[in-house]
Amino acid sequence: MPVDAARFTVTSPDLVNGSFPQANWANSFGCDGGNRPLRLEWHGAPAGTRSFAVTMFDQDAPTGSGFWHWLSWDLPATATALGDALPPGAVSGTDDAGLPGYLGPCPPVGDRPHRYRITVYALDTPSLALPAATPPAVAAFTLGGHVLAYGQTTGVAAR
């Protein structure tokens, strides 16, 4: 993230007191949620934004390097919200489980509460020109070179 990147506001009507409802939890890895992507809303992105990207990262995953749960890019510059489906032309990237699209939280049973950082990036390019199968670390590195501004919210989950 560029040190001088501007900030804007991101919220989710799905996060209740910062917690994920069952509909947004994973439906794999021992969890039985609905795996519905979080709805997001944002405002205050800078003029000059040419596209947006969205990520969800579990910084508390017991992997040594965290866990990417959601990466999407090439959302149109006119977007101010994201619902259950991506807009036409947007790319649904691959998460750290090797699955395309959103993967809801499912922290290990008994582990401390996990913090899931949801970030919307305003980018200076209309397209990252990356295929959906791009590994998450490569996608994050690539989008990092195009950030004009960003907004974040955090969800918490524990079992």
What does this structure look like?
The chain is mainly beta. It has one helix at residues 136-144, and strands at 6-7, 9-11, 40-43, 51-58, 67-76, 81-82, 91-92, 114-123, 147-157. It has a single domain (6-157), classed as Phosphatidylethanolamine-binding Protein (Alpha-Beta Complex). A six-stranded mixed β-sheet has the order 1-9-8-4-5-7, covered by helices on one side. It has a three-stranded antiparallel β-sheet with strand order 2-3-6, with no helix packed on it. The longest helix has 9 residues, at 136-144. The mean pLDDT is 95.
What secondary-structure arrangement, pairings included, does this model have?
Elements: E1 6-7, E2 9-11, E3 40-43, E4 51-58, E5 67-76, E6 81-82, E7 91-92, E8 114-123, H1 136-144, E9 147-157
Parallel strand pairs: 1-9
Antiparallel strand pairs: 2-3, 3-6, 4-5, 4-8, 5-7, 8-9
Q: How many H/I helices?
A: 1
- What is the number of beta strands? 9
Q: State the name of the first-level CATH class.
A: Alpha Beta
Order of helices and strands: EEEEEEEEHE
* Structural class determined from secondary elements: mainly beta
Low-confidence runs: none
Descriptive labels:
single chain; 159 residues; mainly beta; Phosphatidylethanolamine-binding Protein; six-stranded mixed beta sheet; three-stranded antiparallel beta sheet; 9 strands; 33% strand; globular
